[in-house]
Amino acid sequence: MKIILTHEVSGLGAAGDVVDVKDGYARNYLVPRGFAIRWTKGGEKDVAQIRRARKIHEIATIEQANEIKAQLEGTKVRLAVRSGDAGRLFGSVTPADIASAIKTAGGPDVDKRRVELGSPIKTLGSHQVSVRLHPEVAAKLGVEVVAA
Asked: What residue stretches are annotated with the Ribosomal protein L9 domain (predicted)?
C-alpha cells in the first residue's frame, strides 16, 4: 500500500515521503496513530505542504546538529517523579517529560518525537536516552530520575 508519511518514522522515512509498505502495517499501525495518510492523487498535493512544515522544524545541517548534540550532552537532566517505596514509579517517564526536563535544565528546545527510549523508564536512578537530531547524528543523554 502506498502511503504519505506525516511524521518521521524510524527505519521508514521522514514526513512528506511517499513509501510503499505492507497493507496491515499501514492499516493497523501507521494510519490510526496519525503517522501516515493513504496516498491518493489529491493527497499528492499535501506532500508539498508537509515538506514545507518539515523544513521549518528540521535541523538543516550536520554541523548544526553537532552543535545541538554538544549542548545536549553537556546538560545535566534531573527529573523528579512520584515513586513507591521500592523505587518503582507510578507510571513511567515519557519522551514528552524528558523533552520538557531538557528545556527546564537550560538545554536546547527538543521535539518529543526525537527522544528515543530503549525501554520504558519505570525506576529511579540514572538512565541513558538517545535524541535523534539528524538522520546521521544522535546525542546520548543521561537522565537522572529522582523521587519527588
From this structure: 13-40
